[in-house]
Fold these 4 entries.
Entry 1:
Amino acid sequence: MKTDSDLDLTGDPNVVVWRERRLEAAGFAGSIAGALAADCSFDLHRLINLVESGCPPELAVRILAPLENESLPC
């Protein structure tokens, strides 16, 4: 029997849509939310936590940007 941790959601468009909606609800502009939603190298929860703590979305993205410029598709 598979558990939630056994599920491979990589490439699932529903995951990207869900991530984008969460980012937009937190205050990210649509274009930024769309790009971040498709890039799983960004930790969604940490981005949202920074913004909810008063950090501007653009700065939150810079703070949490991966050191290497490699994206990790969702």
Entry 2:
Amino acid sequence: MAWIETVSPERAEGALKRLYEEAVERAGRVYNVIRLQSLRPAVLRASVQLYSQIMKGESGLSRAEREMIAVVVSRANGCFY
């Protein structure tokens, strides 16, 4: 497995610290998929916004249908998230 430098929640400052706090509010913790983008907080914010629009924005699909699609795609890609 590749090693990618990340910023731990304990070391986070400024914008990254706020993004981590938001992650904890949403999910109860800071998952690795969030930490992977920690060196570029602006990119992390954009990524979270895109995900939010895809999963919660206007769509002909219900939230449950979108979640089911995400699970199937993750499984097909061998991703345990």
Entry 3:
Amino acid sequence: MRRYLYSSIGVACTAALTLPLTLTLALPANAAPPAAPVVSADPGIPGSTQSLALVPLDSDRSAGSAQGLTKSDVRSFSMVGVVWDDPAVVLRGQVEVRVRSIATGEWSDWQVVDTDNQAHAADPGTTEGTSKRLRGATAPLWVGNSDGVEVRVQSSVEGRATQDEALPRGMHLELVDPGEEPLRGAEGEAPAGAVLTPESAAASAVNAELAPLGADTIPALDKEQTEARLFRAEDNETEEGAVEGVADKGAAAGGATAGSAAVKAKYIGPQPRIVTRKGWGADETLRERDFAYTTSVKAAFVHHSASGNNYTCAQAPSVIRSIYRYHVVSMGWRDIGYNFLIDKCGSIYEGRAGGVAKAVMGAHTLGFNTDSTGIAVLGSYGSTEPAAKAVTAIAQLTAWKLGLYGGNPKGKVYLTSGGGNRYKKGTKALLNVISGHRDGFATDCPGARLYAKLPTIRSKSATLQGR
């Protein structure tokens, strides 16, 4: 039987967290010696969050039907969102913001912030899902580098007497500064002479069999190279890893502590290029230190970030840093919710820490985070057509990731609901191996235009696997 070679390095992760304050990058024995060291070890400014309480905007304040802020001068920021005290409360109304651009000094038109965000969360009853730090929130909106803001939140609930009944309690406007870009190394390599914090070393170590410690990217491999890395050459017995059309329940990898197990596989797509957390500049001190794993990856849920389409591909790392900070600092999650993110140019980014080849437990599809992976395309795709490169990237990523666990992109699989508005807790739901967020939860995500691309994605992904 061919054996799964993405082995456990949980010990390496633990060791990384016990190292001194900085860690000089260690390269494989056959790697070329590093060039002249980088003088500065500063990976860039980590960013910040401004949290501003909203106030009533009604002339009759007892009505409580609107809250917000009038035009205000603030420190620079690039992403906005609104949060409130109780994560179980739904904001029934409309949120609009306008901002002042630092580049032009001009105020933007009013922009609508997506309030359909409650379905992006950890499963009910889990440690992350019951954390006292959690808050309700809108989706974050990317607005670009700004230093002025105005916001209004209008309730759609009629016949209410008080502010607390009409709108969620404790509403705050969150203004996120993503910080500066990190130091860059050569393609796929760590910056020569750079240093890592223990937290960064741990996040990188779980990908050590795919790229050098501290690398900015995990390189793309062709199908032959992917299979050579995955399977032991001396053990070439082939076995089916999935029943045709339904993912094999036994094709499990990604244990509770390190995410490694033998897996039977026959079909897998080429390993795609993936920008690591180090590559997009994650501040690893924000997230919780340990990694959370599920048993397997039986399905992939496709999302859009609902953060707007007004970003360039060069800004994508900044957008991701902002979403990460918003999820952790503003919403109270343990880490960014998605396992992977993809920009409009088709670049793939590592999301939640724990290892791109491992079964990392995310917080992307409320009720179905167990045995699944979440992939978010940066942008909003209710009425906007997703870029062809982004659609192709989803197919490439799912062909590889699902292939590690014996998943058939054109198949179906049973997943047990952890609780949600479409499937009650404990329900065994038969879902597509590549599903949209709305298939597991009643939501608009991933937007009508991106959802319509899923049949194409399934077909492309299966073809890349060799099916």
Entry 4:
Amino acid sequence: MVKNERIIWFFLIGVISSVIDIGLLYFFTSFLGAWYLLSATISYCCGIFISYILNKNLTFHNKTGHYFVQFTAFAAISFSCFLVNISIIWLAVEFFSVGYLLAKVFATCCAFFWNYYGQSRITFHNP
């Protein structure tokens, strides 16, 4: 698959996992009354799992059976994106009075390129 196709698939899968992530964030915060940062953490973890499965199979067509090692690398890169994500959400909400959902969308956009670079170069790297 050409690199341009990969980034498009990665983006589309990112949209799907982000919709799930943001939907769960909204549900946990608005309907269950959970603290927005706790909700953001749980919803982000759900998005990571969905993203890993879809990217492994659709974006990178990776047939490697080392699921634990590969998911650990995927999760570590995703965790670094999570730190960027949660920091931006916190700053936007607490210091700039931005709604948590708008802050989440902005934070997700900021983390996209690092996530693609890390996943394509580290997690799903073909030697």
